[in-house]
Write a sequence for this structure.
């Protein structure tokens, strides 16, 4: 279970009265590209954190072929993250590159959605997470191809092919496990139930997302929410699975409020560059 | 898990116009996943533009114990190679 409850509007109202207007986790606003940097961190951190999660399977997957499938996806995602985070670092102008952003930020500074940081669980839970995320990321990148930010548009155009493959592969596994044995059906159902509460966050339109959409850099996430749910429900039905019940949505990742899992993930991911600064391959 | 899966032989076309070549095999629960496993296992470094997978059980192979009868008789029939024949001088376009 995530360790933190969602931040409700009344909580925020309360925090507004706190010293510093409760802005301990607010993005820096003292440079003109702050919003865009924030947006790039969201895009980059989604790919980075999911990549790290998938790479945890390396050497442990159910078969050597699946091992390669998961590692390939992880590599695609790390490529996306590199582009987005390098771009964020350039615009930020503080001398940080993608590596610095990946390895020298702490939990509160990460802007990924909560879904991607969720633990792998069993193979079914991993594939349920992948299906829910890649279906969303594909629809997002299809729209970001028209972004006014040239780098975002270029990365989206290239990455949409990668993500389309991730989506198809994950969808096939959801269907096979769901429509498989009693054991695999139960595990996939559990995997979907585990991840389902993190789906609403994918469509959250806060100030940054709204501003980016208005400037033609981002896109209106709500605009493809129905398409997403239709797609997901269709696959769940084909997989003979039950539609997960809507649970209390878990929000906050975009503002740095993460589940307990992200800190553990970062410990592993960041250990080497922090212990041996400047180490090279 | 994979030990319960059937084996599939993988054929890759490296570029348009060339024929598919056998490159190896993968385990997979069915044909669609076999294609994806073949893609992830054998074409991740731009090795191919097209893939075939065939259930290994569908391949009927010659019996190694029959090798002598199957293949030895061809060994001394060099006249089956076009290079066996001398081309007379003055013959072109051959």
């Amino acid at each position: 279970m995530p360790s933190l409850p969602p931040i409700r509007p009344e909580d925020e109202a309360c925090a507004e009265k706190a010293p510093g207007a409760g802005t301990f986790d607010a993005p820096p606003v003292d440079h003109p590209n702050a919003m865009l940097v924030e947006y790039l961190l969201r895009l980059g951190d989604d790919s980075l954190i999911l990549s790290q999660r998938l790479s945890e399977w390396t050497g442990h997957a159910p078969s050597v072929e699946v091992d390669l499938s998961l590692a390939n996806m992880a590599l695609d995602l790390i490529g996306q993250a590199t582009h987005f985070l390098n771009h964020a670092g350039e615009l930020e102008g503080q001398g940080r590159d993608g590596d610095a952003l990946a390895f020298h930020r702490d939990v509160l500074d990460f802007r990924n959605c909560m879904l991607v940081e969720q633990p792998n669980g069993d193979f079914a839970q991993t594939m349920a997470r992948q299906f829910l995320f890649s279906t969303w990321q594909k629809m997002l990148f299809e729209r970001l191809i028209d972004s006014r930010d040239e780098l975002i548009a270029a990365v989206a155009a290239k990455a949409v092919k990668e993500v389309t493959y991730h989506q198809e592969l994950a969808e096939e596994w959801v269907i096979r496990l769901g429509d498989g044995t009693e054991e695999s059906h139960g595990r996939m159902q559990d995997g979907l139930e585990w991840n389902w509460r993190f789906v609403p966050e994918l469509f959250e339109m806060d100030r940054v997302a709204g501003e980016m959409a208005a400037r033609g850099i981002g896109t209106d996430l709500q605009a493809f929410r129905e398409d997403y749910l239709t797609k997901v429900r269709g696959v769940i039905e084909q997989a003979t699975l039950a539609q997960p019940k809507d649970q209390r949505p878990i929000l906050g990742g975009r503002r740095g409020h993460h589940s307990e899992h992200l800190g553990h993930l970062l410990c592993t991911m960041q250990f080497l560059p922090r212990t041996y600064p400047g180490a090279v391959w | 898990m994979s030990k319960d899966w059937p084996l599939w032989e993988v054929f890759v076309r490296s570029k348009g116009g060339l024929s598919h070549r056998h490159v190896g095999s993968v385990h997979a629960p069915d044909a669609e996943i076999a294609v994806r496993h073949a893609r992830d296992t054998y074409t991740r470094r731009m090795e191919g533009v097209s893939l075939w997978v065939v259930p290994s059980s569908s391949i009927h192979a010659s019996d190694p114990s029959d090798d002598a009868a199957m293949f030895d008789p061809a060994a001394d029939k060099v006249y089956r190679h076009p290079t066996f024949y001398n081309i007379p001088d003055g013959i072109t376009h051959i």
Q: What stands out?
A: The interface with chain B takes residues 62-66, 68-69, 72, 168-169, 172, 176 of chain A (CB under 8 Å).
